[in-house]
Specification:
Surface presentation of antigens (SPOA)
C-alpha cells in the first residue's frame, strides 16, 4: 500500500495536498478582492442621468444563470445566488482550472 505522501493530488489545484500544507499555505493571509458579477449593462450617460429612485435596470444575464466569481479581476469560477438568513451569498458550483477551463 502506498504511503500518504505518494497520493496523486486532487483535480482542484486549490485543495491541500496529501501529506503537505497546501499549495497556497504561504499566501493564506494575502488579501484579495472577490467580485461576484450577476450581469452587466451598457448605457449612455444621458440614460443614467435620467434614472430615478426605484428604477429597475435589466441586466445581461437571465434569472437562474450562473454568477461569475472573480478574484482580483480573474475569473475563478461560477456559482448560484443563495439567501443565508437575511444576507445574500453565493454557492460555488464550478471552479476553473489554472488554464481557465472547468
Amino acid at each position: 500500500m502506498a504511503d500518504e505522501s505518494s497520493v496523486a493530488p486532487p483535480d482542484n489545484p486549490f485543495a491541500p495536498r496529501a501529506g503537505g500544507i497546501g499549495a497556497f499555505a504561504l499566501l493564506k493571509d494575502v488579501e484579495v478582492e472577490l467580485t461576484l458579477e450577476i450581469g452587466r449593462k451598457r448605457m449612455k450617460i444621458d440614460e443614467i442621468l435620467r434614472l430615478s429612485t426605484g428604477a429597475t435596470l435589466e441586466l445581461s444575464k437571465a434569472a437562474g444563470e450562473p454568477i461569475d466569481i472573480y478574484v482580483n479581476g480573474q475569473l475563478l469560477g461560477r456559482g448560484e445566488a443563495v439567501v443565508v438568513g437575511d444576507r445574500y451569498g453565493v454557492r460555488i458550483t464550478e471552479l476553473l482550472s489554472p488554464e481557465g477551463n472547468p
